[in-house]
Write a structure and sequence with these properties.
Layout: H1 3-14, E1 18-22, H2 28-36, E2 41-44, H3 47-56, E3 63-66, H4 75-81, E4 84-88, H5 91-103, E5 108-113, H6 130-138, E6 143-149, H7 162-179, E7 183-185, H8 192-197, E8 202-205, H9 207-210
Parallel strand pairs: 1-2, 1-8, 2-3, 3-4, 4-5, 5-6, 6-7
Bound molecules: pyridoxal-5'-phosphate.
Pyridoxal-5'-phosphate (PLP) binds near residues 188, 204 and 207.
């Protein structure tokens, strides 16, 4: 199926849930097809790839979302490229983003990434350390923390991801009012229907749009 057909099908399914279309494995003509279909919220894992694509597609009003782990030495470039940095998982990286955003008079939108499955190979802050990060970010003038992001463990039966999404929704509900959280970014191609059922209002989908799954 074409990119446009896949997009329309997913958007219909999602209703008011926001879609970040993940372009990291997409071919340039596929990205163009998506943009020509009018979808401009895109996600990338690496600062460098997003910077290149931002240049390549600069005639479109793209909002780039950073989804991969961010190193402090890339914060300078990241604040120049991304509308939202979804992968903030330490006070150190929040501070670096704040400092670089201040230099260009920007208030950088971010999400806090939680390692909800406590998987050593994955980024994200441990759930019990999240509130400390939220408190810290509230004091920083050049970042605005808009919500939470997480990846569920990659389990063969997607139904098994449900408890992880439920746990994220509980964290979100616990902190939303005090910290002004709006977005709960959960779910990828394999598990987004479960994520949406459990309360995600933002999903990040690559292969379901661009093929490969
Ligand atoms: C690659 C990636 C996605 C999209 O994955 P698909 O399975 O292709 O939909 C979503 N979120 C993050 C953090 C990713 O790295």
């Amino acid at each position: 199926m074409s990119v446009k057909t896949n997009l329309q099908k997913i958007l219909t399914e999602l209703g008011s849930v926001q879609l970040v279309a993940v372009t990291k494995y997409a071919a340039p003509e596929q990205v163009r097809e998506l943009l020509d279909a009018g979808h401009f919220v895109l996600g990338e894992n690496k600062v460098q790839s997003a910077a290149q694509k931002a240049e390549q597609y600069k005639q479109y009003p793209v909002q780039w979302h950073m989804l991969g782990h961010l190193q402090t030495n890339k914060a300078k470039q990241a604040v120049r490229v991304f509308e939202v940095i979804q992968s903030v998982d330490s006070e150190k990286i929040a501070e670096a983003i704040n400092k670089e955003a201040a230099k260009i008079n920007k208030v950088q939108k971010i999400l806090a990434q939680v390692n909800i499955g406590r998987e050593p190979q994955k980024s994200g802050i441990a759930p019990e350390l999240l509130e400390k990060l939220l408190v810290y970010c509230k004091e920083l003038k050049n970042i605005r923390l808009l919500g939470l992001m997480a990846l569920a463990p990659d389990l063969p039966d997607k139904e098994q991801t449900r408890p992880y999404f439920k746990a994220m929704k509980e964290l979100f509900d616990r902190y939303a009012a005090s910290y002004g959280l709006e977005f709960l970014s959960l779910g990828m191609s394999g598990d987004y229907p479960v994520a949406v059922q459990e309360g995600a209002n933002m999903v990040r989908i690559g292969s379901r749009i661009f093929g490969g799954e």
